[in-house]
Write a structure and sequence with these properties.
heterodimer; A: 164 residues; mainly alpha; B: 361 residues; 3 domains; 58% helix
């Protein structure tokens, strides 16, 4: 019976000792230890999360880089194409203009030629007319000395003039 | 070497020898042929004592005296346990403060006025003496103080380790202590009480776990004459009462409803269950108390009983068997020290978990 009867003294000391131990360890041991452990766990969690974030960012960055590169390439292509087009256009325009200029010049030349020709013709006609008159005068002077000859000449002349 | 000296050394040094006062007086007894009584010896080892007996050398007991602190009718009286001269049969009378004290089976009695000797009834209880209020530093209390100091040093050192280190990296002793603390948190606190509420109970659970464990271990150390503190009903009773108090205080509405008016069952059943649940409330801590006490005491009793075989058969030839078996049991006891601390803690946590569980219907 002795064995299973709690002694007052031991109960008293156990209670005091245990509460003392609980108080001291709670303040000076469990709080710092558990705090440190959970802080570290939090730290690890955070570090892992930020590493994951950094990885994603890196991935995004690479993707961005690729995208930018692609865009740049496309832009270059576009620019080159534009330049080529522009070149072709300029060349074509120049050609057209030159053609037009040439045509215009040719036309002007033709006009000038035509007008020159016209005036030359007129001059020639005048000249020929003068000459003809002169010749005719001379001939007439000569022929008119003879009446038959005069008549015949007039007749011939008239016939020729009609043929013209 | 006489058999009795051999006995004493064997018990004191090699095995789970708690106080060998039983042998001490037996040895100093002039008639050395007195019959060896294993039961008496074992009970003396398992129970508390006033002095811390270390060893007998040629029949002379050597022990560490511890203070006896008594609150009597004449006020506080203190003296050292050595004043009893290793007597526990009520023969040596210590006079202090005008009162006469005797040690009867490691319990101090104060003799009634005018008496000069203890008289006993048929069951060997003193008839003319009574027990004063006893606050003595017995060997159990002494070992408890030692364990408290060891625990405080151990864990405050650990805590300081974290302050010194960067990023809270456990170094040195913290590397050893931290897994244990984390074990109590992750295997006992969190699953039994729940993720949201366990933090409040962690200091209690950790303290009780390490307090029980270290005292279980101290009980097994033979050279310290390990006091059987965690195998003492007063110790386990006190801790169980703490668990009971905390459970009762933290009990929420849901917990009390489950005790007094069990939800989800018909009314006659509710009435039937109420007394059972109320009894259960008290049975839980009582089971804690008995489990720890019985397990640790049983371990000590088995080892001592095995060693007693040598003296029961009065033959050294039986020693190898006794030694082998008690070594085996001691190894098991080392495991039991941790298991019992774990069980006490996990059940306490379970009760706290039940008390704080939220209704989930």
């Amino acid at each position: 019976m002795d064995l299973i009867t709690p002694e007052f003294g031991l109960v008293f000391w156990t209670a005091i000792m245990f509460l003392l131990l609980l108080g001291i360890l709670r303040k000076f041991a469990w709080k710092p230890i558990l705090g440190a452990v959970s802080d570290r766990e939090e730290g690890i969690k955070k570090a892992l999360a930020s590493a994951e974030k950094a990885r994603l960012e890196m991935q995004n960055l690479t993707a961005d880089n690729e995208r930018i590169l692609k865009e740049a390439r496309a832009e270059r292509e576009a620019l080159l194409k534009e330049a080529r087009d522009l070149k072709a256009k300029i060349v074509a325009d120049a050609k057209d203009e030159a053609q037009a200029q040439a045509n215009k010049m040719i036309e002007q030349a033709q006009i000038a030629i035509a007008s020159e020709k016209k005036s030359a013709m007129a001059e020639l006609k005048n000249h020929v007319a003068g000459l003809s008159v002169e010749i005719a005068e001379k001939m007439v002077r000569e022929q008119l000395s003879n009446k038959d000859k005069q008549l015949k000449l007039v007749e011939d002349m008239l016939g020729e003039a009609k043929l013209n | 070497m006489t058999l009795s000296t051999f006995k004493s050394i064997l018990f004191s040094v090699l095995f789970l020898a708690i106080s060998t006062n039983g042998f001490a007086s037996e040895n100093s007894d002039p008639e050395n042929d007195k019959e060896f009584e294993p039961k008496e010896m074992i009970l003396h080892h398992v129970k508390d004592a006033y002095g811390m007996h270390i060893i007998d050398i040629s029949g002379h007991p050597i022990s560490i005296p511890l203070p006896v602190i008594l609150y009597t009718d004449n006020g506080l009286t203190t003296f050292m346990s050595s004043e009893f001269h290793h007597d526990y049969n009520g023969e040596v009378i210590v006079e202090k403060n005008g009162q006469k004290f005797v040690n009867v089976h490691e319990k101090v009695y104060v003799l009634n006025e005018g008496e000069t000797q203890v008289t006993y009834d048929e069951e060997h209880h003193p008839t003319n003496a009574k027990r004063p209020l006893d606050f003595s530093i017995t060997r159990n209390v002494f070992m408890m103080m030692v364990s408290v100091i060891v625990l405080i040093l151990l864990f405050t050192t650990t805590a300081r380790r974290y302050k010194k280190s960067e990023n809270n990296v456990p170094t040195g002793i913290a590397g050893f202590i931290e897994p244990l603390v984390v074990f109590v948190r992750d295997e006992i606190g969190k699953p039994m009480i729940g993720e949201h509420k366990y933090k409040r109970y962690m200091p209690y659970l950790l303290t009780i776990f390490f307090f029980i464990w270290i005292n279980n271990v101290f009980g097994l150390i033979p050279i310290l004459n390990g006091a059987n503190l965690s195998g003492n009903i007063a110790f386990t009773c006190t801790l169980a009462v703490f668990t009971f108090i905390i459970t009762t205080i933290s009990g929420n509405k849901n917990y009390w409803k489950h005790i007094f008016w069990m939800p989800g069952v018909p009314v006659p059943m509710k009435i039937f269950l109420m007394p059972i649940e109320i009894i259960g409330m008290f049975v839980k801590p009582i089971s804690l108390m008995i489990r720890l006490f019985a397990n640790i005491t049983a371990g000590h009793v088995i080892i001592l009983a095995l060693m007693s075989l040598i003296f029961v058969f009065k033959s050294v030839a039986i020693a190898p068997v006794s030694v082998a078996f008690s070594l085996f049991i001691t190894v098991i006891e080392i495991i039991v020290t941790a298991i019992q601390a774990y069980i006490f803690t996990i059940l306490s946590a379970l009760y706290f978990g039940m008390a704080t569980e939220e209704e989930h219907h």
